[in-house]
Write a structure and sequence with these properties.
alpha/beta; 45% helix; Rossmann fold
């Protein structure tokens, strides 16, 4: 008889980028509730410390993900303070929206650096740690439907998120033999970043969704918790839409 796979994460260290607020914070809280030691990451040292103090077993690390080197340094800092790394959730990102003719070279570079280059560097550095630990690992990258079909005013954002899922699939192929699983989640939830915390806008968007309602960050966190747990032991290279059917509209 097969053993029952657990959703517990006891003894594992999870890095959740951009976890001082919004979806990232909900993910950090959910993984901590499953027993993981969670690294709360953000730009502000003070804010990271405040959030980590409110999550049992969490540790704060602040840094700006403005380069590949920053991603390397972040992973090194995690191992330094926590002793190991088992789970990576690439949640941090930016949306510097503008139509193609208004996208400056600087905005293009800033968007791709934050949404693609830094997450790639984190995956690369984490893969080396996972291989040295010889105990597997799990990575979840937060992407977007914009990266699948484009969206007016989001050329840079769409390119970065589409590229990130391509990295997901490549990493899944390369790292599977080391017991490392890599998946993407394309979310839609009410956050400050997308303005859906405004009740009127939320209701308008909800009416256009097949499920008729907009998720909150904890619903996204549930999907992440599943994908990084042993219950998803045979899922890799997948793109999971947690968006109430938004990708169908």
């Amino acid at each position: 008889m097969s053993a029952i796979l657990s959703d517990r994460l006891d003894g594992r260290v999870a890095l959740v980028t951009g976890s001082s607020r919004g979806i990232g914070r909900a993910i950090a809280e959910r993984l901590a509730s499953a027993g993981a030691t969670v690294i709360v990451h953000g730009r502000s040292t003070e804010r990271c410390a405040e959030v980590a103090a409110e999550i049992s077993g969490a540790l704060p690390i602040a840094c700006e993900l403005s380069s590949a080197d920053a991603g390397d340094r972040l992973v090194a800092a995690v191992v330094d303070v926590a002793g190991r790394l088992d789970i990576v959730v690439n949640n941090a990102g930016v949306a510097l929206d503008n139509f193609i003719t208004g996208v400056t070279d600087e905005r293009w570079e800033d968007t791709l650096t934050a949404n693609l280059t830094a997450p790639f560097a984190i995956i690369r550095a984490a893969a080396r740690i996972f291989k040295s630990q010889a105990s597997g690992g799990a990575i979840v990258n937060l992407t977007s439907t914009s990266g699948e079909r484009g969206n007016p005013g989001q050329a840079a954002y769409a390119a970065s998120k589409g590229g990130l899922h391509a990295v997901t699939q490549t990493a899944a192929r390369e790292l599977g033999r080391f017991g490392v699983r890599v998946n993407s989640i394309s979310p839609l939830a009410a956050t400050e970043m997308n303005g859906l915390i405004d009740d009127d806008r939320r209701q308008v968007v909800a009416k256009a969704l097949p499920l008729g309602q907009v998720a909150d960050p904890p619903q996204i966190a549930e999907a992440v918790a599943f994908l990084v747990s042993d219950r998803a032991a045979f899922i890799t290279g997948e793109l999971v839409h947690v968006d109430a059917g938004f990708h169908l509209t």
